[in-house]
Design goal:
By secondary structure, the chain is of the alpha+beta class. The protein contains 17 helices and 19 strands. 35% of the residues lie in helices and 20% in strands. The structure holds flavin-adenine dinucleotide, (2R)-2-hydroxypentanedioic acid and zinc ion.
Amino acid sequence: MATVLKQPPAATLERLKTAIGAKGWTADPAEMSPHLLEERGHYRGRAALLLRPATTAEVAAAVRICAETGTAIVPQGGNTGMMGGATPFEHGNEILLSLSRLNRIRALDPLNYTLTAEAGCILANLQKAADDADRLFPLSLGAEGTCQIGGNLSTNAGGVQVLRYGMARDLVLGLEVVLPDGQVIEGLRGLRKDNTGYDLKQLFLGAEGTLGVITAAVLKLFPRPREVETAFVAVRDPAAAIELLARTRSGTGDAVTAFELISRTALDMVLTHIPGTADPLSAKHEWYALIDCSSGDSGGGLREAVERTLADAMEAGLVIDATLAASAQQGKAMWRLRDSITEAQKPEGGSIKHDVSVPVSSVPAFIAEASAAVARAIPGIRPVAFGHVGDGHIHFNVSQPAGEPKQGAPRDAYLARWGEINRIVHDIVARLNGSISAEHGIGRRKVDELAHYKSPVEIELMRTLKRTLDPKNIMNPGKVVVP
Ligand code: FAD
Ligand code: 2HG
Ligand code: ZN
């Protein structure tokens, strides 16, 4: 069964309110409203109550009551997720559990290079805390001013520095989790070596709230880079970008921290819709790479290495034009172009998203095949290909044809073809041995796609885990996998 349909009785709601205290709940429609709407407005749910516990003990108390009464819970962080995972269903029988008040940094140990933070901490605040201690917390994504670390870990977020530092999963040493029966795993160990049996924390990282509630984590810190070089590069095509990535990795002693592809269509949307943006290059080109290289050494050798790599690549015909940021401010302006792509797609009408990965070497083939295939399905459709190709990851979003009205029936008719277009693109991904969700997860949006593409053995094992940890199916039911 996908969802729990029973409305929680008034007595259950009263028990939950009492357990969390007056500051920790609301049933006010206006206060609840922003929590009930998914990031792009594709889902609007309802909830019986919004809980905002401020301690792990309060989370555990609430979950215990829900377990006893068979009440479904939807955990929510910053509500920036793109798969509808944090949005309750329309029936309104679930409890929404916001982690936003559970937001203390519990410890920062510069010698152990660790930061212990509660789930509701905003990602940007953790980056700043690390920076203040002359350390780096490398998880970085466009939503970092709003998303919360609990949401990042629950989606196993990626972002722009995976190439060097890994996904969110790779940045976790210890985890505190409230299980679906209300028990707490107190696993906040800051150990780099711990082979004491199964690595249980991995179950909850990327589980999207379906196996428990993450309440705190011990996160890895790194030395803060002393020199960062940012380059905005016009490349011949995606194949040239991938060749440039390999050359930049070897030419800089593997100093590449971010390597993002940007198509002209994506850049044009940003330049049109995002105030204060400007094209860093004088002429228009079809494809760009935005590259960050960083080093712990501030001697200037990195800049020379990047310049030499770009000059060689230009001679080889891979690079058409390039500019290296002359200041941190210029670097920021280049990154603003990249980080604004999601926002800039919105006024362009319906956008059907694909968050996919393939082996890095297969990125050019994927873009070529997928672009041709969607154009055959809907003439005039506009592929907006961009993203973390350094990880083999492409955000292959397709906007509705340019000439159509961007709102109302034409937009709805276009979005109604979401499943059909997904299937076309995901079949290509599958043929190239890729993944239909590189970083955004499954949520509600891709439950059927996952069941279609994942092997029956893996799906059954996922179901077994779900049934074992959450036998009453109260943790974010109907998301990721249906038991
Ligand atoms: P939410 O959206 O609130 O929740 C996401 C899922 O996690 C839901 O299933 C929810 O139930 C569950 N959950 C939340 N908190 C907890 C918890 N404490 N315990 C258990 N389950 C929990 N994503 C990337 O990976 N890389 C990017 O580069 C990136 N860029 C983005 C840029 C923009 C402009 C936007 C709007 C989004 C972007 N995202 C990106 C998507 C999104 O920001 C990430 O998925 C992020 O990790 C979600 O965090 P959140 O706190 O908003 O989680
Ligand atoms: C990014 O990398 C995000 O900017 C969002 O993951 C991608 O809009 C999107 O599909
Ligand atoms: Zn992304």
